[in-house]
Design brief:
The protein is built from 25 helices and 28 strands. By secondary structure, the chain is of the alpha/beta class. It has 4 domains: 1-178, 3-Layer(aba) Sandwich (Rossmann fold), CATH 3.40.50; 182-349, N-(1-d-carboxylethyl)-l-norvaline Dehydrogenase, domain 2; 364-529 and 651-669 and 698-731, Aminopeptidase (3-Layer(aba) Sandwich), CATH 3.40.630.10; 539-646, Alpha-Beta Plaits. Strands 5-2-1-6-7-8-11-12 form an 8-stranded mixed sheet, with helices on both faces. The chain has a 6-stranded mixed sheet with strand order 13-14-18-15-19-26, with helices on both faces. The protein has a 4-stranded mixed sheet with strand order 4-3-10-9. The longest helix has 20 residues, at 466-485.
Length: 734
């Protein structure tokens, strides 16, 4: 062949793809490859590229190295990195005086090539082609990729580079650049992520999505080295290297990772060539060679690369036994990444790094959280259906076993007419546990799911109980799971779920108070109020005022009777005067009934009251006033029954301190946490009254409690689970 021909050394995925494109465009191409079966197939049938069901072949000259001894001029070197020296042994004595070599390889091989054949005869290139040899003579075209060619060390684009790039347009949008080094280091970061995916047998996109800590950290370690070298990273395909640098905005990184995995999911190859070398071809992988330069420069500049080194060590183990391939390896790397100070994980690093690790781990599991909420919502749990409550609690216990493992201890406190109470204890730091309080009953009658099932529309989830408060429990569990997955400390925790909260917790309040008194603090997973946590709730009193009068014929003997209805009217006006809006006290006479007929003086009348108070002092004042009710008509009598359903939840010093801790945790997660006081009560009221600080409303973000508009946010679930985890791990250190 003449000096304008191309010799492709290494006819594998990259070399075969480029040779096919050049030959099909009419360029003279010679293939050199050590795989005799591959060469023979090309000689017999041509070089074939498969795209889906379509195959196309071109005729090219092909030979093994020992079968060709002529000169070579323009050499496209595409062998595995570990085979570079051997390939140069063959190329160097045959390279024409005006010849040159382009490294279309993974890794950093240009310096080695320049040392062997001379720097002026070495051209740099970056290649990211998703292709694979699927049988002798046949290359699978894995989809679009990127090619960049340039002179070494940032030199201006030369005539030979421009000519080569023009010829490579037969492949696709190849470009010339004076910063090939920036592309190579960017690909080294991307390649480190792909190398990590080869530790498990699953699609690349799925593993990158499920293990962001490992993926972001290995790329970040490579880019730390690039930064030490002063390299300006270049974006290629769907990979945005700047998003994976240390200190990048987590939201930007998550968005970039999402675009990357979406792009990877469109490629014909769902697993890397590294994985194929291990699992299919059972041969050594090249990454253990081409990351040698990264490690050399890292040591020279004092850059730590523990996760990348662990990835390479894991691949070496799999070279010996591919059967050890397992996703647990990535889980272990997640824990390692999370334990490093100042990393994308950072369990022992600054609070913000640790919070970022939690958020990213949970963000990677948001669909798993949605799946759990869907399954939980499908368990109907109406407060008045004990059979449904029992079935729901059985499901919850099984789910908790799978999600958190067996508890240190478990108690099921049986109740006759309502749902049983579940108490599970999990080990952790501290002498006294943190109480995680919630309920599994809902206001929705049995059968509601048949006409209104769980639904998701983008970020919004609807269904009976999703807001109040099934999403809250899912978030609590995933917050604990995040701490376990990242090896973050957590306090001892007691998870307590009752089945009668929606009907006033009449059969569970004593058990809640008893549990609270042994706890250091409590998190109540009731829904948030417009995103705010609740640091004060009103006490609730439910009272019945019954007036007994004397019946008589209203027409024949009106003076003989004493009207209970008239007396009740006097009392209602008096009760209305007890309201004090400035003190936060409301009193509502919601139901009245009395008398039998219009011509009969009423002998009995009843009023049902709902009282809300913001302070214990107001609770005492209203209670005393109700106890002291006196009839206006002395012939009637008054009886007050009922009582305080829930005590006042005041913003005590302990509550304020816990809220401030939560606010600081939210700040490390990148958002502002508000607090509010509300008129509605929860089981948190019992806990505060027992003298224990409470963070309430840490549950679902959404709206529509007790209404057909009930909804919760998927993003809010991730946000609140992360808040739960960071608050708990912070409490473990206090």
């Amino acid at each position: 062949m003449s000096s304008d021909s191309y010799t492709v050394v290494g006819a594998g995925a990259i070399g075969g793809t480029l040779a096919f494109s050049l030959a099909r465009a009419g360029h003279r191409v010679r293939l050199i490859d050590t795989d005799a079966a591959h060469v023979t197939a090309i000689q017999d049938r041509g070089l074939t590229v498969a795209r889906g069901e379509h195959r196309e072949s071109v005729r090219v000259e092909a030979a093994t190295p020992d079968a060709y001894d002529g000169p070579v001029h323009r050499v496209l070197l595409a062998v595995k990195a570990q085979a570079t020296d051997a390939a140069l042994d063959w190329i160097a004595p045959r390279l024409a005086p005006d010849g040159w070599v382009v490294s279309f390889q993974n890794g950093f091989n240009e310096e080695l090539i320049a040392d062997r054949i001379g720097p002026d005869r070495t051209v740099a290139a970056f290649v990211n082609i998703f292709a694979d040899v699927i049988e002798p003579g046949v290359i699978l075209d894995g989809g679009a990729g990127a090619l960049v060619v340039g002179e070494r060390h940032g030199a201006a684009v030369s005539e030979r580079v421009a000519a080569l790039v023009a010829d490579l347009q037969s492949w696709g949008p190849a470009v010339a650049s004076d910063n090939v080094e920036g592309y190579l280091w960017a690909k080294a970061g991307f390649g480190a992520m792909l190398a990590a995916t080869a530790l498990a047998d699953a699609p690349m996109a799925e593993l990158i999505d499920r293990h962001p800590l490992t993926m972001h950290e290995v790329a970040g370690e490579v880019f730390d080295v690039a930064e030490a070298l002063g390299v300006e990273l270049e974006t290629f395909d769907a990979f945005e290297p700047e998003a994976f640098r240390r200190g990048a905005d987590p939201a930007v990184r998550r968005a970039a990772a999402g675009r990357l995995t979406a792009w990877l999911a469109t490629q014909a190859k769902d697993r890397s060539g590294i994985w194929r070398d291990l699992a299919v071809r059972r041969r050594p992988v090249e990454v253990t060679t081409h990351y040698a330069e990264v490690f050399t420069q890292a040591e020279r500049h004092g850059v730590s690369t523990p996760v990348l080194r662990s990835v390479i060590a894991g691949l070496r183990e799999l070279e010996r036994d591919p059967g050890l391939m397992a996703e647990e390896r990535l889980v272990a790397l997640d824990r390692l990444a999370a334990s490093l100070p100042g990393t994308h994980g950072g369990t022992v690093g600054p609070d913000r790094d640790r919070a970022r690790a939690v958020r990213e781990w949970l963000d990677a599991h948001r669909e798993d959280m949605v799946d759990d909420l869907a399954a939980y919502t499908s368990q109907g749990s109406a407060s008045d259906d004990r059979e449904a409550l029992a079935a729901c609690l059985t499901w919850v216990r099984g789910w908790l076993d799978g999600a958190l493992g067996a508890p240190q201890a478990e108690e099921v406190l049986e109740r006759e007419r309502t749902g049983d109470i579940l108490v599970r204890r999990y080990p952790g730091t501290g002498d006294r546990p943190v109480l995680l309080l919630g309920h599994y009953d809902t206001v929705w009658p049995t059968g509601t799911l048949e006409e209104w099932p769980f639904r998701r529309d983008g970020d919004v989830i609807t269904g009976p109980g999703v807001f109040d408060m099934k999403a809250g429990l899912v978030q609590a569990v995933w917050g604990l799971r995040a701490l376990d997955a990242l090896s973050l400390p957590r306090p001892a925790c007691t998870l307590m779920l009752n089945g009668d909260e929606e009907t006033g917790s009449l059969t569970s309040s004593e058990a809640i108070v008893a549990e609270a008194r042994g706890s250091r603090a409590a998190l109540v997973f009731e829904a948030a109020a417009g995103g705010a946590v609740k640091t004060a709730r009103k006490g609730v009193g439910l009272f019945t005022v019954t007036v007994t009068g004397k019946e008589a014929h209203a027409g024949l003997d009106p003076d003989a009777g004493a009207s209970a209805v008239e007396e009740l009217a006097h009392q209602i006006l008096y009760l209305a005067g007890l309201r004090d809006p400035e003190a936060g006290t409301s009193l509502n006479v919601g139901v009245i009934e009395g008398g039998t007929r219009s011509n009969v003086t009423a002998g009995r009348a009843v009023a049902r009251l709902d009282v809300r108070v913001a302070t214990a002092a107001e609770q005492d004042r209203i209670g005393a006033a109700l106890d002291a009710l006196l009839p206006v008509d002395g012939r009637t009598s008054i009886e007050v029954t009922g009582g305080w359903n829930r005590p006042v939840f005041e913003r005590t010093a302990g509550v304020a301190e816990l809220a401030e801790l939560a606010r600081s945790c939210a700040a490390t997660l990148g958002w502002d946490l508000r607090e509010t006081s509300v008129g509605g009560a929860s089981d948190g009221n019992f806990v505060v009254a027992a003298g224990v600080p409470v963070l309430d409303g840490i549950g679902a973000v959404g709206s529509g409690a007790h209404a057909r508009s009930e909804n919760t946010s998927v993003a809010g679930m991730v946000e609140r689970a992360a808040l739960t985890a960071t608050v708990l791990t912070s409490l473990s250190e206090r």
